[in-house]
UniProtKB/TrEMBL annotation, chain A:
Residue span(s) of domain DUF4130: 83-251
InterPro entries for this protein: DNA_repair_put, DUF4130
Superkingdom field: Bacteria
Protein name: Probable DNA metabolism protein
Pfam families the record matches: DUF4130
UniProtKB/TrEMBL annotation, chain B:
UniProt-listed InterPro entries: Aldolase_TIM, DNA_rSAM_put, Endo/Exo/Phosphatase_dom_1, rSAM, rSAM_sf, RuvA_2-like
Domain of life: Bacteria
Organism: Chitinophaga rupis
Name under which the protein is recorded: Putative DNA modification/repair radical SAM protein
Co-factor requirement: [4Fe-4S] cluster
Keywords per UniProt: Iron, Iron-sulfur, Metal-binding, S-adenosyl-L-methionine
Amino acid sequence: MQTVLYDSSFEGFFTAVFEIYEYKIKDPDIQQQGAAPVSLFGGQHTVHTDIAKATRVIKKLEEKLSADAFANIYRVLLSEQPGMENVLFRYIQYALQATQSIETDYSHPDVLWIQQVVRKMGREKHRMEAFIRFLKTKDGLFYATVEPDFNVLPLIRKHFEDRYADQRWLIYDTRRKYGLYYDLHSVTEVTIDFAATLNDKASLRTLHDEQEDLYQSLWRTYFGSTNIQARRNMKLHIQHMPRRYWKYLTEKLPG
Amino acid sequence: MSERISEKLTILSDAAKYDVSCASSGSDRKNENKGLGNASNGICHAYTEDGRCVSLLKILLTNFCIYDCAYCISRKSNDIKRAAFTVQEVVDLTMNFYRRNYIEGLFLSSGIFKNADYTMERLVLVAKKLRTEHRFNGYIHLKTIPGASDELMQEAALYADRLSVNVEMPTRESLRLLAPDKNRNDMLKPMRYIDKALTQNQEEKKLFKKAPTLAPAGQSTQMVIGATPETDLQILYMSHFFYQKIHLKRVYYSGYVPVSNDNRLPAMGTPVPFIRENRLYQADWLMRFYHFRVDEIVSPQEPLLDAQIDPKLSWALRNLQLFPVDINTADYMLIMRIPGIGIQSARKICEARKFSRLGMHHLQKIGIAVNRAKYFITTSDAPVLKDYQPMQIKEFILNEGSSKYQPNFSPQLKLF
Ligand code: SF4
């Protein structure tokens, strides 16, 4: 077995795929640099991300895979699942060898695994689109902090860009320490460390728009009174809104 | 001032909540004017403690009403607090909730004050302001008031994504008994009018791309279940009529929540008929997505849905001569009729079997309720089960007691 180290970027991964073929590396174990202890057995190969090599792999895959199946590779790489690179590599091998499209061969364990991870990512993306709650600041910025199970910000970007086109907004991932910022023209990734500001709840409050508290409290009022007590079903409630998301939900926080 | 708004919101959302429709899907309104919002995917932003999806700000403009429908909390004779929003208040609430990602849009209904036109005019005004002054592209569902003028209906369709009139009572007789001021034709007339307008609009859109789209998410209605003696047969044939003849997008079934001591109605404290409501939704799904005909689900001999098992399993047990089905060769349409296999799994089976012959372990991995499906299928590996009687199979499945087969009270359910 040979460990193949890459820089965790999308292009880096495809460069790694290229070099495994190029150097005929047998039994590769693709890992992100710094992520895992270096294997004591077998050799090690460090990949230097090379756009030209990556592009050749991407081109080839685009011939072999549908646009959706190709996008799924990207989604899996955002999932941060241990071992995902190796599954993807086997999947790519399988796709390149096959004479027909293999992307719906759910009897193949790697195809099925990818499909399941994509489904999980989809669920998390969907939850973020549903559960993000913006707060409005005095200067008209709508901001939200999140801590998604997977790195889904790149996947929700378009949704928020399309929808909130007439307000400035910021969605910040506190676990991965970066955010998306929309300035009324375009979305950019920002990596300023907001942690200190965000932890200081009191000073944060002074930054809020004067009507922010009003609308939060109206939303809580609404959430309470739209419930039909005679139909109460907490099991279903929690199934749909898992507790770990409550900390972001205005309606679930005390006023 | 904020207290007053909060009180109004309490009263007017409380009064609106018995309308169970919550969908914000079916529209594809884009944000092309760099305004606020779009109506594309129908997100549930929260779930109430009763497990229902919160997607729209669902409120009444007012709960003052000149009518006295026995099943309604806002009826004239009910001694409750009354309130009314101004048009601007509704607009502000909608915009501010939407901007914070609390909601997908607005579902606005109203008690009838003064007369139908006067009420409808104000509902339309809210929608118009949102669309034109605020460039709001989120979802708007307007309740249309029976008896309002055709011009107002037309205008409502211009701004709203969805329109609805709730028939509430499944039959004319029940309506006469419980809502004597209402007349069934007054409800069907606007539905038919809108249906015609929408069909015409689709024709126009084919000719002129730029023609404005009327109510892209179509029409819906709601029937109250369990307040009156109708059978499931009557209710489902009514739904069938709405889907086929008026092209409604959705029919909602609302298990009656007792709100009155009126002796024409179930007493206060009577449990809400959740299971029946759930079975009706399942039957509705079978009609809309599984290509079942209504007479395959209920019949004059069996006018009630089985409370213990879902209507798809019921159907299969009545039609055992069609089974077992060979997973590796059967038609897609038949595969999705197998108990334990939903539309998604049926599709996956048909995809996967192109690559290799499927056995039980494949089905398990694909996520099929194998314990249920096994009585109805043959695969490449599993032995064919002996011929059981319908009652035996029903017993086996019920005895498994897996919580998955317990009735689930959500109208969004996808169990089959
Ligand atoms: S007209 Fe509507 S609001 Fe008025 S009592 Fe009847 S159902 Fe209730």
